[in-house]
Structure to design on (317 residues):
């Protein structure tokens, strides 16, 4: 769709300079004048005004960090890196990742008091497209390293390679690459109405477009039809791709699609959804303005909000 890359975490044209990943001497030189984004337990560092909290590579806060991950180069030659600080234990607060609307700010004693670790979902709307792409990439890669420390082939501890874009097993030689898990998220319409559903664990009043992981051996279109039929009992005919969104919570790529329902009758699978409903454009306008009696406004920055907003404006082409 036109404007599809304007979605939050849509591309900013970052030069990832992949050819440099295997050149440690060049990267060491870039690092000396580069900048590093610390990430602590999934939360990037932010300045008080909402920009990313970059620090120089020789900052003392990075003393115990995992190996730096190279994110890319700016036009002026400045290099950006990410560092995992998750081993740091704060004196107070659990630091546990929370699923929804985590507003907490975690300062660090080695950093200026204006800096704090925050949930990226809470802060993503304040970022420039470039910083959003860098933060999403940093969060996804740091999480991958934390959760893939051991070789999937033989179980030995693996090591970081290619400036953070691979892991290699010293025991069996296997190479491992960062995961991205495709998820379909679908605007299902029937005439003037759109299908929304809610999961039982979501905050009250939160509804969204239906979504689900693409299964091995399945096309995007088939995944859309299967998920909607499984979750809501609604058969879907034509399906087309609209726009995608990297969603690093922890490793998804959201594939936004439009599907046309063949029938309106809903049969919710209670193991998947608590409720599903059809809303017409007037009702969705009420939702967006916060005046709907049941459904709260969708989370700004998420592709569901983006697709619904563009559907309302008749801008899906
Ligand atoms: Zn191995």
């Amino acid at each position: 769709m036109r404007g599809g890359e304007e979605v939050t975490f849509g591309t900013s044209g970052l030069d990832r300079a992949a050819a440099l990943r295997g050149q440690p001497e060049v990267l060491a030189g870039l690092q000396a004048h580069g900048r590093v984004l610390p990430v602590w337990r999934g939360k990037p560092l932010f300045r008080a005004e909402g920009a990313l909290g970059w620090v120089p590579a020789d900052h003392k806060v990075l003393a115990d960090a995992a190996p730096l991950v190279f994110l890319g180069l700016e036009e002026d030659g400045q290099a950006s890196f990410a560092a995992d600080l998750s081993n740091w234990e704060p004196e107070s607060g659990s630091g546990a990742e929370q699923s929804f609307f985590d507003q907490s700010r975690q300062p660090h004693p080695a950093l200026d008091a204006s800096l704090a670790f925050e949930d990226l979902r809470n802060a993503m709307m304040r970022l420039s497209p470039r910083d959003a792409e860098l933060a999403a990439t940093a969060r996804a890669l740091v999480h991958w390293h934390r959760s893939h420390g051991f070789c999937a082939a033989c179980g030995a501890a693996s090591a970081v390679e290619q400036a953070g874009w691979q892991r290699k097993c010293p025991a069996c030689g296997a190479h491992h690459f960062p995961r991205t898990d495709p998820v379909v998220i679908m605007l299902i319409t029937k005439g003037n109405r759109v299908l929304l559903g809610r999961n039982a664990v979501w905050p009250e009043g939160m509804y969204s477009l239906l979504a689900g992981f693409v299964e091995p051996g399945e096309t995007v279109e088939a995944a859309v039809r299967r998920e909607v039929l499984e979750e809501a009992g609604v058969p879907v005919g034509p399906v087309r791709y609209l726009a995608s969104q990297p969603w690093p919570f922890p490793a998804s790529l959201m594939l936004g699609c439009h599907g046309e329902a063949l029938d309106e009758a809903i049969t919710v699978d209670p193991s998947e959804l608590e409720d599903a409903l059809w809303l017409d454009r007037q009702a969705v306008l009420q939702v967006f303005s916060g005046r709907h009696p049941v459904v709260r406004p969708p989370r700004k920055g998420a592709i569901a909000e983006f697709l619904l907003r563009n559907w309302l404006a008749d801008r899906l082409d």
Q: What stands out?
A: Residues 129-147 form the longest helix (19 residues). The pocket of zinc ion is lined by residues 151, 153-154, 156, 169, 171-172, 174 (CB under 6 Å). The CA atoms of residues 16 and 72 lie 4 Å apart. The chain has six helices and 15 strands.
